[in-house]
Amino acid sequence: MNDLHGILFAYRSDANLGELTRHRNTCSVPFGGRYRLIDFMLSSYVNAGITDVGLVVHQSYQSLLDHLGSGKDWELSRKHGGLRILPPFSYAELGHGEYRGNMEALSGVADYLEDIRQDYVILAWGDQAINLPVSQVFEQHLNSGADITMVCTPTLRGAPQFSEYVEVSAEGRVTDLSVHPTTADKALESLEVYILSKKLLLDMVNYCSAHDVYNFSRGVLQPRLKSLKIVPYVHKGYVARFQSVGDYFQRSHDLLDPAVRADLFNPARPIRTKDQSNPSTYYGPESVSKYSLVSDGCYIEGEVENSILSRGVIVEKGAKVSNSVLMQGTVVKAGASLSYVITDKDVTVNEGRMLMGHLTYPLAIAKGSVV
């Protein structure tokens, strides 16, 4: 795998996630109690033996930098290569307030691409939860003789207006690509993960830069479906995509299913995250915890059911938390009741308060709020 270089797009800040992306980009949204979304694809790269990763960022990435640090927890802190943060101001100014698409983002880091030591590159977004066997994808790419291998899933999880779908011929080539249709009428959904040669990538970046083409799917793939051999890799494991607050709530609760956890947190391909060395969680003598994921460092004296609690959450005596997602540092004081609620970091819910959302419309509380 030393011949594969990793590029992760981490510049997207999806406004559809509301309060969850007000202070951070989508890649740094907490997930599963102790992880950030960036952990999943970055770990997939590292588990495949990739030692050089470029992280393309643009704005609202301070939280991401705080989480990743030097890349030590992912074994990417190296004198040569390792994790490289690629902000827009390090390269040529493009004249736009933000990247309009991933080809424009790659044009903005063209100098970095030229210096890549490997012959092949994997491109992916860092804001989906997946444990991808990247080594198998790369092996298929080499054996198939494909110009581009694109990772797809037969389980349609994204909203059609934000997703891409492919048709595949009997010979196994992609023959059609639908970008953001009104309905999902194809068998496979693209995860927008691609493997291709460095030479082909640089040719595409140069062409797109010269012709003001900024979107990879519409500007590069659709016009070249016949001239390039594009082959799908079908990933049959679990995938979580986050295109709304409701998505985040439902995908978080997917983790309460042991089968989902077994697939996503496969011990053969561990998901790495920032080490915080928290103490064990304390459960009071009258506390209740049912069917929940509770991280280290919590203090539980009340009732918790069907919920996900991040590190350092406090649930005081007499408080009740059900069907909720509480991020790091949330404090639920005595007598408070939460149901179908998402609290961002460092939220305090005062005594006797009752917060109630719905399965289809969970209530999201902004970071640092006192309710």
Descriptors:
Spore Coat Polysaccharide Biosynthesis Protein SpsA, Chain A; alpha/beta; five-stranded parallel β-sheet; UDP N-Acetylglucosamine Acyltransferase, domain 1; 9 helices; 371 residues
Compose a concise summary of this entry.
This protein has 371 residues and is of the alpha/beta class. It has helices at residues 38-47, 62-68, 102-108, 110-114, 134-144, 198-211, 216-221, 245-254, 258-264; strands at 4-9, 30-31, 35-36, 52-56, 82-86, 120-125, 129-130, 148-153, 164-168, 174-179, 188-197, 230-234, 239-240, 282-283, 288-290, 293-294, 299-300, 303-305, 308-309, 314-315, 320-322, 325-326, 331-332, 337-339, 341-343, 348-349, 354-356, 363-365.
What can you tell me about this protein's structure?
With 371 residues, this protein is α/β, with parallel strands linked by helices. It folds into two domains: 4-264, Alpha-Beta Complex (Spore Coat Polysaccharide Biosynthesis Protein SpsA, Chain A), CATH 3.90.550.10; 282-365, UDP N-Acetylglucosamine Acyltransferase, domain 1. It is 21% helix and 27% strand. It has nine helices and 28 strands. The protein has helices at residues 38-47, 62-68, 102-108, 110-114, 134-144, 198-211, 216-221, 245-254, 258-264, and strands spanning 4-9, 30-31, 35-36, 52-56, 82-86, 120-125, 129-130, 148-153, 164-168, 174-179, 188-197, 230-234, 239-240, 282-283, 288-290, 293-294, 299-300, 303-305, 308-309, 314-315, 320-322, 325-326, 331-332, 337-339, 341-343, 348-349, 354-356, 363-365. Strands 1, 4, 5, 6, 8, 9, 10, 11 and 12 form a nine-stranded mixed beta sheet that branches. It has a five-stranded parallel beta sheet with strand order 14-17-20-23-26, with no helix packed on it. The chain has a five-stranded parallel beta sheet with strand order 15-18-21-24-27, with no helix packed on it. β4 (52-56), α2 and β5 form a beta-alpha-beta unit. It is elongated, with a radius of gyration of 21 Å. The N and C termini lie far apart (50 Å).
